[in-house]
Write a structure and sequence with these properties.
24% of the residues lie in helices and 37% in strands. The chain is α+β, with helices and mostly antiparallel strands. The chain folds into two domains: 121 residues, no CATH class; 153 residues, Rossmann fold, CATH 3.40.50. The chain has a nine-stranded mixed sheet with strand order 3-1-2-4-9-8-7-6-5, with helices on one face. Strands 10, 11, 12, 13, 14, 15, 16, 17 and 18 form a nine-stranded mixed sheet that branches. Helix 4 crosses helix 5. The longest helix has 17 residues.
Length: 283
C-alpha cells in the first residue's frame, strides 16, 4: 500500500504494510491524493540491519540518531531509543528514494524520525526549513519562538494562548517555514509536534521570530544582520556537511533575515513576558 501526504505544499509518499499506517494517525490531516511529483518516497519493511560507517551522532534526551555511509556511499541513519535500535534509514544520494528497515521495538519512533529527516533533507533545496520551534497564530499571522531545549518555547507559546485573545497553537516543536514564489515566508503545521500533540494542516504568513533566553526580567530587542542569522541556524534541521543541503538552507536563512524581523527576548515565564513580546512584535 502507498499513501501520499502534503506538508507545506510538498507531497511525499510512504509505502508499507497496514501495521505501518496504523502508527501514522498524526499524518491523517496531511493526507493527499496520488502525485507524480513527490519530494521523496519512503518504503518501510523489516529486515537485517545494514552495514555502515558512522560519521556523526546526535543525542537528545536518550533519543539517538547516528548518521553514516554504507559501502555504496549512500547516507544511512540509525535511530535508537536509549540503547535499543528502532530502525535504519538508507537513502539515495539525492534523498528522493529511501527505505526504512524497522525493528520490533519503537517502530513509530523510527517512522516519525525517518520522515522528519527525509523531509528536512529533501526540501532544503526548495527554500523550505523544518524548525525546532514553537509557533502560534495571531490575527492571521504566525510567530515562532526559538531557543535551546528547556528554554521555555512551549511555555511561552502557552502564555500567549492564555493571556492574549485570539492566539492558537500552530505547532509545538516542528513547524515548517517555506519561502514562497513571491518571496514571502509562510509557516505551516506539520505531522511532528514533540511532546504536545498539535497536528494541524494550517498555514500563515510569518511576521516575527523570537529567540528566547531565561532571565530574572523581561526585555526584548531587535536582532539584525549576522546576529539575526546566527539566531536561526541552531534551530533548523539539516546536515550542514552535505553541500547541497547546506547551500539550500543558507539561501532560506538569508531570505528570512532579510524579510522577517528577528528578536531576542530575555524573559520570565509569566504573563508580562507574553504581553511585552506580543505588543512589540505584532504591531
Amino acid at each position: 500500500m502507498t499513501n501520499y501526504y502534503k506538508v507545506a505544499e510538498h507531497v511525499f509518499s510512504v509505502c508499507g504494510e497496514d501495521e505501518v499506517f496504523a502508527l501514522m494517525d498524526n499524518y491523517a490531516p496531511f493526507s493527499s491524493s496520488a502525485s507524480d511529483e513527490v519530494v521523496f518516497s519512503l518504503c518501510v519493511n523489516r529486515g537485517a540491519a545494514p552495514d555502515y560507517t558512522e560519521v556523526i551522532r546526535q543525542d537528545d534526551e536518550g533519543q539517538v540518531i547516528i548518521c553514516g555511509r554504507n559501502a555504496a556511499d549512500e547516507p544511512v541513519f540509525e535511530f535508537r531509543w536509549g540503547n535499543q535500535s528502532a530502525g535504519w534509514l538508507v537513502c539515495s544520494s539525492d534523498y528522493l528514494h529511501s527505505r526504512l528497515i524497522v525493528s520490533d521495538d519503537y517502530q513509530k519512533f523510527a517512522v516519525d524520525n525517518a520522515l522528519m529527516v527525509l523531509y528536512a533533507l529533501a526540501t532544503a533545496r526548495l527554500q523550505t526549513a523544518l524548525f525546532h520551534a514553537a509557533a502560534v497564530s495571531f490575527k492571521d499571522s504566525a510567530y515562532m519562538f526559538l531557543g535551546k531545549s528547556g528554554t521555555g518555547k512551549s511555555t511561552h507559546a502557552r502564555l500567549w494562548q492564555q493571556y492574549i485573545e485570539g492566539v492558537e497553537l500552530v505547532n509545538d516543536d516542528n513547524p515548517v517555514v517555506r519561502i514562497m514564489d513571491n518571496g514571502q515566508a509562510w509557516v505551516f503545521g506539520s505531522p511532528w509536534s514533540g511532546k504536545t500533540p498539535c497536528y494541524r494542516c494550517v498555514s500563515y504568513p510569518l511576521k516575527g521570530i523570537v529567540l528566547l533566553s531565561q532571565a530574572p526580567y523581561n526585555k526584548i530587542e531587535r536582532l539584525r544582520g549576522i546576529q539575526a542569522y546566527a539566531a536561526l541556524v541552531p534551530s533548523i534541521s539539516g546536515m550542514r556537511w552535505d553541500e547541497p543541503v547546506a547551500d539550500g538552507l543558507h539561501q532560506t536563512e538569508n531570505a528570512l533575515v532579510s524579510y522577517v524581523p528577528v528578536w531576542h527576548l530575555d524573559c520570565l515565564p509569566d504573563e508580562a513576558a507574553a504581553c511585552i513580546c506580543n505588543e512589540t512584535i505584532s504591531v
